[in-house]
Amino acid sequence: MLKKKYILNFDGTQRGAVVALDGAETQVQVDDGELTPVNYHPVLNGKAISIRFGGKLHLVHLTGVDGKGKVQATVAGRPIVLSVMDELKAQALESLGGAASGIIAADIPGLVVEIKVTEGQQVKVGDPVIVVDAMKMQNELTSAVSGMVVSIPVAAGDPVNPGDTLVIVEPEVVG
Prior knowledge:
Blueprint: E1 2-10, E2 13-22, E3 25-30, E4 36-43, E5 48-53, E6 56-64, E7 70-75, E8 78-86, H1 87-96, E9 103-105, E10 110-115, E11 122-123, E12 128-134, E13 137-142, E14 147-151, E15 159-160, E16 165-171
Antiparallel strand pairs: 1-2, 1-8, 2-3, 3-4, 4-5, 5-6, 6-7, 7-8, 9-16, 10-12, 10-15, 11-14, 12-13, 14-16
């Protein structure tokens, strides 16, 4: 049985999921729940997925948001923007340890107004990297480390929630 772990971020919530493949059978485990058989089939010319999970049938419309892992899933008419990353990437980000590592995250709900850097760009401590509008105030967030911008998982116009990663700077190695 092949198992792969994922981390899902949506509506300011982080959930863990395991997808297990055993031949033609697929099972999913959410958080600490049990592995549950899942049947899924693309429908509507691949624009949606019909999923039978936990005895219920769901029709999920999926739309890529930014080409960087964010997806809008519409379930029962309710749109949810979520990001999905495999466990390895999640552990790598966690091992960096937050702001001191170069992860710039949203503190409060807001809207990304401007991204002031590009992937691959070198930044220094205090350089502005992104502007977020929160409660009608524009907040310019700066890098806490010197290094290279390795990921920008948001785009101008994206809504963000507390804890959402906005920019990741890989700290330069000194020594």
